[in-house]
Amino acid sequence: MSGTTEKRGFAAFLERKNIRFSLKRYGIDALGAMAQGLFCSLLVGTILKTLATYVLIPLGLATVGGAIQTCGQMAVDMAGPAMAVSIGYALQCPPLVLFSLLAVGWGANTLGGAGGPLAVLVIAIVASEFGKAVSKETKVDILVTPIVTILVGGVLAILIAKPIGVAASWVGRLIVLATQMQPFLMGIAVSVIVGIALTLPISSAAICAALGLTGLAGGAAVAGCCANMVGFAVLSFRENKWGGLVSQGLGTSMLQMGNIVKNPRIWLPAIITSAITGPIATCLFRLEMNGAAVSSGMGTCGLVGQIGVITGWYEPTEQAISAGAQAIAPGAFQWIGLILISFVLPAILCWALGRLFRWIGWIRDGDLSLS
């Protein structure tokens, strides 16, 4: 009886502290929030630096360009804290826990190296839950809660951030290397898997960031994301018109998840398209993502995937350089490849496959409507 009472008491404590151990909370909510934090820091900072370096300064606007470069670098430097705070926000942390995660995120990302995002995800989740557990439990909460959050996160960062980062980096490098060795098969696999992840209620961007998908593997990931986003936008134009075209093509194909659950066959045109455009990207155009790895999982969302490819041409990230990337001056072939893989082929292929599937009755009128 006492054991049962203790369990009930512990369960009640967790409920009161809003601590729920679930795949959705950690694998969907926290992961998705981390991607947003990474977007608002590393990705936006990279875009600002590229804009200043290759547009404003060459136009003679050195003062403005220099200021924007500095702002961009500020954003890049805050990637770790931004990710950790985003995770804490998704886990509904109290203010003192949330603010303390700034230090935790910086430490985990710095010590995690190339695999820093995955280290931040794991460590920030643990530190958040410990911080929530002690929050407002003492009369000196203003001391206890930050100390516990920072100590738990800091000690974990010291102990496991580097191993997690090395493991994530190793897996990412393995995928990148495999794509280089088998660009056709891996082009299909990476494109299909990341494209599916983009449409599922998980974060393909965070996955790509955590694994550091750059190079040809990153290019295949971009192809898969575009196949789903542009594909669904065109496929559902009959039902959703221009609003649906923009919300899915520049927003997210995740909007179709409710319809996919009702009729999974509506996903086939996008999946088949990603299986086609992936190897075209890797084998024909040799499309590489040498910008921020998070861009690989963004597709046409705000054109972040395309911006990532472009910035990678001119200024590869350290991660991409370590894998052999070099800055290039893109020619017509590179630009045509990017446009075809990102927009033209997904639109044409999904439209054609959609016509076929509607004709055989696998997709019916209204199956793709966004309510």
Q: What global shape is seen?
A: globular
The chain-level structural class is: mainly alpha
Distance between the amino and carboxyl termini? 51 Å
* Percent helix range: over 70%
Helix-strand pattern, N to C?
A: HHHHHHHHHHHHHHHH
- Average pLDDT, rounded to a whole number, is 90
Q: Let me know the largest β-sheet.
A: none
Radius of gyration: 22 Å
Would you count the extended β strands for me? 0
Write down the domain tally: 2
Proportion of beta-strand residues: under 5%
Uncertain segments: none
Structure at a glance:
This protein is mostly helical. It has 16 helices and no strands. Helix 2 runs antiparallel to helix 4, helix 5 runs antiparallel to helix 6 and helix 7 packs across helix 10.
Q: Explain this structure to me?
A:
The structure is a single chain. Helix content is 76%, strand content 0%. The chain is mainly α. It folds into two domains: 158 residues, no CATH class; 178 residues, no CATH class. Helix 8 runs antiparallel to helix 13. It starts with a helix and ends in a 12-residue tail after the last helix. The mean pLDDT is 90.
Can you tag this structure with a few keywords?
2 domains, 371 residues, mainly alpha, 0% strand
Structural topology:
Elements: H1 2-16, H2 23-56, H3 62-77, H4 79-90, H5 95-112, H6 116-134, H7 141-181, H8 183-199, H9 204-211, H10 215-235, H11 237-249, H12 257-262, H13 268-284, H14 304-314, H15 318-322, H16 332-359
